[in-house]
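Fold this complex.
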Amino acid sequence: MKDSGQHFVADHVVGLPRSGIRDFFAIVAAMPQAISLGIGEPDFVTPWHIREAAISALKKGKTSYTDNLGLIRLRQEINKYVEDSYGLSYHPEKEILVTVGVSEALDIALRAVLNPGDKVLYHEPCYVSYSPSIVLAHAQPIGVKTDVKDAFGIDPVKVAEAWEPGCKVLLLNFPTNPTGGVTERKKLEQLAKFAVEKDLLVISDEIYSELTFEGEHVSIATLPGMKERTIFLHGFSKAFAMTGFRIGYACGPQVLIEAMMKVHQYSMLCAPILSQEAAIEALKNGKSSVLKMKEAYHKRRDLIVRRFNEVGLSCHNPKGSFYAFPSIESSGMNSMDFCKGLLDAEEVAVVPGTAFGPSGAGFVRASFSTSYERILEATNRIERYLNKIG
Amino acid sequence: MNSVLQILLAGERLDTAQMAQILGLKEADVNVELSRLKSEGTLLGWRAILNPEKIEDGLVRAVIEVRLSPERDGGFDRIAEHIGEFDAVESCYLMSGKYDLLIFAKGEDLRSIASFISERLASVEGVLSTATHFRLRTYKEHGQVLNDSGTNGDKLPVSP
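Structure:
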């Protein structure tokens, strides 16, 4: 075959860029001794009581499919948790869908609501999958840049400026991966008003919400008129350190959950039962583990942000998540060259800001989901690197 | 809790300069605080956590349950403090339940522990009886689970 099968690949997939993080991963993977601040997941292992629940379920022979929506016991626990934590209430039988991580939840939400050519507003820098997931749903992504001067919170004025006819969805993720930005209540209220005015559906990915270090976390779904036009996405990966369990959920109006369920049942069928059992245990008894991990992230955040500012990389204070997003402007380099140079010279891996969209240019993402010792050693090496190139 | 103590308890090997960096203090202030903790008897000392399965020191370790007859004035305290002075005693606790003191003891071999119990411990005035259990294997030491399987070997060095 002359093109090795390339002509079989769908046009819209050919057009998708490879995740910038994958390219960088290949370089770091070849240097196992490097200190990596590039890890987008907790450095904690899943708390034992949660792992044990999965083991126990396996021992009991729980190896079957579940209801497409997920185990009803889990959906009931999700409802309780979401009510306690966010002040939102959803009917466990009709308004909650258990998914394979938030990634699947986001994908099926987009596929369930978008027609070809619809437009989706999202903020950038953002998680690597947002723009590609929109394209895979045959829709058009419209990025709205968030700025360091707004601490990477979204500016409703910019959203209004970016809006154009055909916009159907507003996709939010606060606290944000990679910036740690949050959006305060007042701005969310303006956004909510705008969403109602323009009849936008909001998809809100709140996976990092438990890891909010300062101020209150406000879900846009709690604002007047928003619950009926918001799909609330959440999961267990970050707060409960359960990334490998691949388990998340979506809450929203019955009609939308039903539509998502159709896509889910024909693609995924259901989330793995062992992960669902582990998730029930996490929600029932995991609160103290979450708080303990949050406290550790909080202290590490204070350290890494202070160290970046001390060594000459201006770094805003991320109010949530476990990522710092320092500016590398002072180095005079672009993000990729900075990261490759740092890895080469000092064997420290941080992720180029551009992996999270073009508006991440001039920044790098450094995860503080690692030990004090490694944060100190990495930032000392970064200081040495800056002195060398400066 | 005192912030210096919190850093100590986090379990990482950090020198005072690193502790100062983490806490945003001057190194001298950390040293002052450590001296204070030591002089008031909060910080008793420093010790590495080692895997007993990998140390070939040949030491034998035992747990000894001791029943005591309390004294009119001092209760168990005087006897417990007396017993705690023996080098063979690594830790000593007053317990609720069927016995009074729980002793973690070490000796060069089985015989040295046996002679500690029969010649020293049992002859302390107020000691009514002892029951000794020898440690066979360690599975967890000071919060560290000892297995070679590890948990993070497959974690990606960079992930989104």
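The longest strand of chain B covers residues 60-68.
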